[in-house]
Amino acid sequence: MEDGFQQFLGTTVSQLPLGQPTLTHQPNPPFSIEKGGSFERKKMMKHFRCLAIFLSLGLVLIACQLTQQAAKQTAEPTSSAIASRETDIPTDKVSQTEQADPVTTQAPEIDIPDTAERKKPPQSQAAEIRPNEMRTELTHLSKLLGYQVLDENGDKLGVASDYIVNTCETYIIYILMEPEASLNVEPGNRVVVPFEAVTINSGVLDAQNKAIQLRLIPEQFSGAPTFPADQQLTPTDWEGAVRAFWSKAVRIGMLATSCNVAGGPVYKIAYATQLLKVELYDGQNKLLGVVQEAILEPESGKLGFYIVKPATGEGLVMVHLRAINIPKEALLPGGTLTLMLTADPQVFWDAPRITSIEEADDFALQSKMRNYWDR
């Protein structure tokens, strides 16, 4: 490139007019040089521009070569390190001192129990009756004893061996369930489940299959409160733990063991098995009869009537629950449960008689007997 430049300069200089003018012809030197040099100067500038372009291209080529060499030198150590790591580390393990690849390595997934994220069952106004034409089979308290308790998939959780009834609020408030062995409950204990798990949590009362179906799964019974066989219902210090546990799984309303009456809450609760075959007395402690059955609205668990076999005479008497009380002494530890009629005993003896428990299922008759006891 230098030789070409020197040749270019030599050729340009050799072409310049170097001869001296004669004395006979002496033009104006500045004018002659100005006119003759202008063409040559333009030609020379053109050569310089070409040269500048060549130089720029050469510098660009040199810069590209230097960049490629630098990139190659940088990549070679990285490739060597990767090759060394792939050779030294087994394919099924990652060294504890090596940083994990954030793209391909992920934290192990944590198995969350169903109960941790499980929502409460859909709210309902009443329990579903199946089939509806067999509803009357569910209106007798005694017939609900021994019903299977099923989970939401229809698998057996246990058997409803008893119920806890609030006699002054006249509702079933708890189910006592003898659990299946799979629930790992201590033998002899019964699980306490709010009856509202059926009524306001989309539960089902199935008369055909004699079953109570809950919108729950077996895992939700882990750690559930239980009763031993000889559990006394009063005092009711056991209830707080029951409500606290189940309020996480189902909706629980205001129904509880207490009766809100003037002067403070009172507790008139009993097992269903106690109420059936219990004796009814008047205020003078004279026997009126023995309870044979209790009639209820299965959709809500509300009890309406006791069916009493009179101590004398034929037939059965429908006695409204509002006309009956549990004496305070009958609820003391070791006391024997009895019922006391709060109305005039003669109202009992004059009451219309029915010949069978099934007659008490008639809605018209129930309305008639409510009016009778409310007068």
Looking at this protein, list some descriptive labels.
about 375 residues, alpha+beta, SH3 type barrels, nine-stranded mixed beta sheet, seven-stranded mixed beta sheet, 9 helices, rod-shaped, disordered N terminus
Describe, in plain words, how this protein is organized in 3D.
The chain is of the alpha+beta class and 375 residues long. Among the domains are: 120-271, PRC-barrel domain (SH3 type barrels, Roll); 275-374, PRC-barrel domain (SH3 type barrels, Roll). The protein contains nine helices and 18 strands. Strand 13 (287-297) and strand 14 form a beta hairpin. The protein starts with a helix and ends with a helix.
Main structural class: alpha+beta
Low-confidence stretches: 1-36, 74-113
Reported CATH architecture of the domain at 120-271: Roll
How many β strands by DSSP? 18
Order of helices and strands: HHHEHEEEEHEEEHEEEHEEEEEEHEH
Please tell me what the overall shape is. Answer: rod-shaped
Assign a percent range to the helix content.
25-40%
- Quickly name the level 1 CATH class of the domain at 120-271: Mainly Beta
CATH topology (fold) name of the domain at 120-271? SH3 type barrels
Cα Rg = 51 Å
Largest sheet: 9 strands, mixed
